[in-house]
Each structure stands twice: as C-alpha cells, then as structure tokens.
Amino acid sequence: MEVxxxxxxxxxxxxxxxxxFFTSSAAFLAFPFSASVLLSQALSPSSPASLLPQIYNRFxxxxxxxxxxxxxxxxxxxxxxxxxxxxxxIFTLPFTLTFLLFAKAFTFHALNNHKTIFSSPSLKxxxxxxxxxxxxxxxSCFLILSANASAFGLLFLAFSxxxxxxxxxxxxxxxxxxxxxxxxxxxxxxxxxVICNMAxxxxxxxxxxxxxxxxxxxxxxxxxxxxxxFLALPVNVALAAIEALFQFRVVKAYHVAGKAGPFxxxxxxxxxxxxxxxxxxxxxxxxxxxxxxxxxxxxxxEDKHFFRIELPDEDNNGYLGTKNLxxxx
Length: 329
Description:
Blueprint: H1 2-17, H2 19-42, H3 52-66, H4 73-112, H5 123-165, H6 171-206, H7 211-221, H8 225-257, H9 262-302, E1 308-311, E2 321-324
Antiparallel strand pairs: 1-2
C-alpha cells in the first residue's frame, strides 16, 4: 500500500510539474476520443446509431441457450454492462486507434525524454512509438475477448453442473451462484485489464509491441496484481464520475429542453476535456508503475552476490582455495 501511494504521488508530481505541457498538447490529442466515449454513452437505445439493443438481445439469447438463469437480476445487469461496453468500444474504435494511441505515444515520449519535455517531438519519433502501441492494443483486445469468453465458459460449466445436481430450483442457492459468478467475472476481467495496461506501458517505453509486450507484462505484474488494481482504482473512479457528470449536466439537460444550447455545449466540451486530462494522468501512472517495477527488478539483480569462502586442505598449502557456495556439495 505504501509503495502504491508513493507511485501515485510521483505520478501527480510529474503531472503538476509539467502541467501546461500535459494539459495542452497531450490532452488535446486525446480530446476526440474522450468526446466519442461520452457521446457513445449518451446515445439513446432507440437511436439508429446505437448498437446496444441488438447486442443486448444477442447476448440474452446466447445466455438463455447456454442455460444461464434468465430470472437472475445479476446476470441481467452483467448482460447490460457487457453490451454497453461492447457497443461503446465499437463506436469509439476509430478514435481509439488514432487519437488515443497518438496521445499515449506523445505522453510516453515526453516522459522518456523529460529533459526536453517542453520541446515538440518530431512526427517520426511519435510514429515510432505509435506502431508498437497499435500492435499491443490489437493483441490486448484479443486478450480481453479471450478473458470474457473464458469467464463465461467457466460460468456455463458451473451452472450446468449445478443443474445436474438439482440445485437450480433453489432461489437462495441461485442467488449465491450468480453473485459468485459476477465476482469471478470481475476478477478475471480486472486481471486482464491491468496486464493490458502494463503491456501498453512497456510498448510506450521500450518500443516493442505485440504479444511479447503482453507476456512481459504478465511477468512484471506477477505477484503485484493488488498493487496494479489499487493504482488503477482512483483514475477509473474519476473517469466514471466524469461520465456520470456528463449524463447529469449535458444529457439530462438535452432531454429536458429538447435541444442543446450554447452553454450546455460548452459545458460538454469542458467535461470531455477533463476526461482527456485523466486519461493522460492514467498514462503517467502506468509509466511510473512500470519504472517502479523495473527499478525493483534491477535492485533484485544487484543483490545476488556470490559468496566465496576458503577451506583448509593439507594438499594445497593449507587451503582448498575459493569456491562459490553453489559449487559446494
């Protein structure tokens, strides 16, 4: 916990130390992505551009065919959240592959070259970081889809086993299994997300993308999952609060008035800009976390000393000589 707080303090210090740089260039690069995320969640389910009803109905049919209890309120909420996330991801995909990744590449380049942080980086240096970030993001999408499929597969096996045992008719036992399934799904998805976040940081710092960055992220984060979740919690809570603020101040005002006035539009722009700032802050936290893990691993390597001793022996002038401890029988 103390190490996590220290990383958060270092991240906030780095952000505030170069506040004008991060809130101008980097935040404006992430602004179109932030606006697309907020607008995708503001779309009404009856809107032609909304994919939520189609995805929700497809998942409901799939859950019913798999044998999941349709009466469970927890699975209804889970279906709704997965459908919202998937529809929002599809809507924002063009902005994610362009503006978000360029903003992350811009931020990682600035953090890697802190001595020249106020100078505008060249387009070539940004593109050199964009390519591995793009490869890692595509691999991360497959990893998250695999994690979701694995979670649903485990839930399907569990409920099939319970149905064979004859416990599916018990409401209390059904509620317990539904809650356990929701917790299992959340744990699997959270671990996949923190691994993908670490892989993006590795790609942004080392310039290596693809599945190798994900494998390295798994190795680095091993045994430190709780720390990664603690670091991801504050920023994600802030992002969720900003999304709720957009719904309350912009979407609700639009539905009440029937149109968006100039002040409502300006407020929406400001909220999207605030969302962009926290995305940049999340990138800085990932960078600091990666640096902390690398420093810890380097210190661990430095502490591996080879101890040597001298043993008496009459055939060698009274000494056997020096040997490593690992060579001794």
